[in-house]
Each structure stands twice: as C-alpha cells, then as structure tokens.
Amino acid sequence: MKKITFAVIALTIGFVSMSFINKADSSLTKASNDVLINSNEITNEEVKSIIDNKCYGCHNSESKNTKGKKKLSFDKLDELSIYKQIGKYEGIHETITEGEMPPEKFLAKYPDKALTDKEKEALLSWATTKGEELTK
Amino acid sequence: MLKKILFGVIILFAIIQFIPNELPKITLENKDDLLSNNEFPIEIENQIRASCYDCHSNETIYPWYSYIAPVSFLVKRDTKVGRKELNFSDWESLDKKKKAKYLTNIIEEIEEGEMPFPPYLITHSDAKLSDEMKQALMDWADDYAESLFE
Question: Which of B40, B50, B117, B146 fits B44 for a cystine, CB–CB 3.0-4.6 Å?
C-alpha cells in the first residue's frame, strides 16, 4: 500500500514538474522565435518586397528584357555555381553602391521605382551577408 | 567649294594635334599582376595578353596612330575606362568575392561577344577570338574561379 502511495505521489510530482518544464520550454521557444522573426525574417521580407517591386520586373528568367535577364535572374540565382552566386551578390552590391540600378532611362519613365536610401541599405546588407555566407 | 572644305579639314586636323591628350601611363612591372602571379597554360596566357591587356592592364601597347588626334582621344578614353573597369595589373590585390565577380563577368562577356570590344578588333586581328579560343577562355575562367573557392 505504502509503495503504491509512493508511486502515485512520485508520478504526480513527475507529471506536474514535466508540465512545468514543457510550459517553460514552449514559452522559451515561442519567445526566441519571435525574436528571430523580428531580427531576421522581417528584414528578408523587406528585401523580398524591394526586389519584387523594383528589380524583379527585368531580372527574372521570363523577362522580356534580355539583357537584364542574362545579367541576373533572381529566380535562378540559387542554381548558379557557388562562385557565380558570390560574383552576382558582389555585382549587386557594386551596382547599388554606384547607383547604376535601376537604370536612369527606366527611372525617367517610372520615377517611383527609384530605390530609397533605406532600401539601398537593406539590399546592400543583404547582398553582403549572402556573399559572406557563400564564401565560408 | 570642295577645295575649301578639304582645306578646312586639314587645318582642323592640324589644330587638334595641339590639344593636350596624355595617354594613360605604361608600367611593365606590376607586383599584383594576374599573369605574373599565376601559372596558366601558355596559349591562355598569350591570348589574355593579346585580347585584354591593352585596355585591362598597365602594360598597354600603343600603336603609332594612337598618338594622332582624333584617334588618340578614343584610345585615351577606352584605355582609361578599361583599366577602371578591370585592371589585371592589380588582380592579386582584389579579394575573392571581387575575383568571383570579374571571372563571372568575363565568361558572360566572352559568350555574348561583348569583349574583346569589337571596334578594337578592327586594328587588332590577333585579339580576335576563334570559337575554340572563346570556349577555352571560358573554361579557363570557370576552372580558375572554382579553384579560388576549393
């Protein structure tokens, strides 16, 4: 009888403490996920939307702009060999630093496609990070 | 009338010779040079020298007519722009990411026939690339780039 009582108490303690651990664990995971989403994902979302809005129109593999498509297709970028990807990210960085893209002629027609300083910054840090990840 | 025009052209030609137009300087010893720091097959090395080095290095060979205006203006501009865009004399001072960018671009430009610059080929027949040589240069650039990241 004593043994059974002991076992029940032990199990109860076990369950209660386990549930605490679980709770603690899940809240921890949730919190760190939020942090991740805040620091990482949103920046990427930001970059993604900049590219979608201001670059992708010419720089995709289905583009009618042959030159833009050949130079850089964002949808096929991952398929290139590592050094070419590194080269492309380096090229993106230079092009934006030098203010060569979007092209002036294009901007004369669509002035709202110009990159703001904040967008340039986001693209530059993204290109740098990508290039560094691949160089490792 | 025709005589007057011809006379005018000659006078103009004479006058433009006095416009200062210093061509970019030649330096033969360059410690960061691509070809002096690397061992590539001799035919590749020779072709790079013949097809690229006049504009993309400090070892430009200026033909006699490059000192005569108005050709000299074009030569000055193309050499300056070429060296600024890519200078093989400074190659080893570039980091790996930049080298990757240049080698990627080299392959693309050879493939598209953008380089060597077509007007340059009019007077430099040894710079012209046969289809086999194009392929050999693209393969070289690809292998070399891969080797940088092994």
Answer: B40
Once rounded to an integer, what is the mean pLDDT over residues B124-145? 96
Does the pLDDT at position A29 exceed 70?
no
Q: Are B55 and B11 in contact (CB under 8 A)?
A: no
Q: Is there a domain that residue A113 lies in?
A: yes
Q: Which residues numbered 45-74 in A keep a CB inside 8 Å of some CB on B?
A: 70-71
The verdict on A131 touching B (C-beta cutoff 8 Å) is: yes
B13 Cβ neighbours under 8 A, 6+ residues apart:
B69
- A/B interface, count of CB pairs below 8 Å: 44
Is residue A99 domain-resident?
Answer: yes
**Tokens representing residue B75 in the block:** 């030569």
Q: Decide if A81 touches B, using CB distance below 8 A.
A: yes
Number of domains in chain A: 1
Tokens of A9: 């108490």
Range of the domain at A84: 39-135
Distance from CA of A117 to the nearest CA of B (A): 24
Which residues of B are less than 8 Å from A70 in CB distance?
108, 112
Lowest mean pLDDT among A6-15, B41-50, B74-83: A6-15
pLDDT in tens, A62-113: 988 888 988 999 988 889 999 999 999 999 999 999 999 999 999 999 999 9
Of B131, B130, B37, residue with least CA distance to B92: B37
Separation CA B29–CA B33 (nearest Å): 8
**What pTM was computed for the model?**
0.78
- Smallest Cβ distance to B104: which of A88, A131, A135? A88
- Is the ipTM higher than 0.85? The answer is no
The ranges assigned to domains in chain B are 2-148
- Say if A65 falls within a structural domain: yes
pLDDT given for residue A28 in this prediction: 42
> Of A53, A80, A46, A75, nearest to A63 (Cα)?
A75
